[in-house]
């Protein structure tokens, strides 16, 4: 056999050995190492986390070899508890690898402040839509005699008139005083002396009248917050929408302001 043929044979043997080693390494990498490294064939079903508290979710995911990541864009739902899960990604039921990150959006601890919109002179239906768009809750609807049928006459927060632009927590309840469409009517001025100031205001508005000045006076003879004087006096013939001034007992120096 010539030297050339011997050299070709040696080269062929070496190439065969190299190819065999290459295929062997590739087989070990793709069929043994890589599946073991990526937990091939092992998956975890993503649980439904919405409605659970942050502390509950963290331990729950760790026990299933999943990692919780809280997103920065927290939301706010008035009916949900603080730090309650509002959204998650991946969605419940998805199949993921172990150690997969599960992104959750939590309910904020404190309600964000929003500016109160103006609902006065707005139709009731539109006012309710505006409240919903601003993240506010429509509370009680009180009908009073007024020519404007279903027109908002007053917007109230915690029993008091609230002006446009005042900052209040998102999710707050706003009560509405609405016209019944019957227009002006004559009525007797009710007697509100001795009532709590909030009860007196409710009776005044419920009678179709409007609140005038609320004057605070110092007195030790009646409980704080009690109406001690009214103008016009009880029994006087009134018309719908007329203003009523009241004087309310309060400790300290006498002050006056307009509602």
From TrEMBL:
What Gene3D superfamilies does UniProt report for this protein, alphabetically?
3.30.10.20
* Top-rank taxon, per record: Bacteria
Keywords carried by this UniProt record = Membrane, Transmembrane, Transmembrane helix
Q: Which Pfam families match?
A: PASTA
**PROSITE patterns, per the entry:** PASTA (PS51178)
Q: Where is the signal peptide?
A: none
Looking at the record, the residues that make up the PASTA domain are: 41-108, 183-250
Name used for this protein in its record: PASTA domain containing protein
- The membrane-spanning stretches of this chain are 12-34
The uppermost taxa in this organism's lineage are: Bacteria, Pseudomonadati, Bacteroidota, Cytophagia, Cytophagales
- Which InterPro entries does this entry report, sorted A to Z? PASTA_dom
């Amino acid at each position: 056999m010539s030297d050339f043929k011997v050299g070709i044979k040696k080269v062929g043997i070496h190439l065969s050995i190299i190819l065999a080693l290459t295929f062997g390494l590739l087989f070990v990498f793709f069929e043994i190492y890589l599946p073991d490294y990526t937990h091939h064939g092992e998956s975890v079903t993503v649980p439904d986390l919405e409605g659970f508290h942050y502390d509950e979710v963290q331990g729950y995911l760790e026990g299933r070899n999943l990692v919780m990541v809280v997103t920065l864009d927290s939301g706010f739902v008035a009916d949900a508890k603080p730090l309650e899960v509002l959204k998650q990604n991946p969605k419940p039921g998805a199949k993921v690898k172990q150690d997969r990150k599960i992104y959750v959006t939590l309910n904020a601890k404190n309600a964000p402040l929003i500016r109160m919109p103006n609902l006065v002179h707005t139709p009731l239906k539109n006012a309710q839509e505006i409240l919903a768009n601003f993240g506010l809750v429509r509370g009680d609807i009180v009908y009073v005699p007024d020519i404007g049928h279903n027109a908002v006459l007053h917007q109230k927060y915690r029993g008091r008139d609230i002006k446009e632009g005042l900052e209040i927590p998102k999710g707050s309840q706003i009560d509405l005083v609405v016209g019944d469409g019957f227009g002006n009517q004559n009525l007797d001025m009710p007697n509100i002396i001795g009532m709590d100031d909030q009860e007196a205001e409710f009776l005044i508005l419920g009678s179709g009248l409007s609140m005038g000045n609320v004057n605070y006076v110092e007195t030790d003879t009646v409980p704080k917050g009690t109406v001690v004087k009214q103008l016009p006096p009880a029994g006087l013939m009134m018309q719908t929408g007329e203003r009523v001034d009241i004087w309310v007992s309060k400790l300290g120096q006498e002050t006056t302001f307009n509602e």
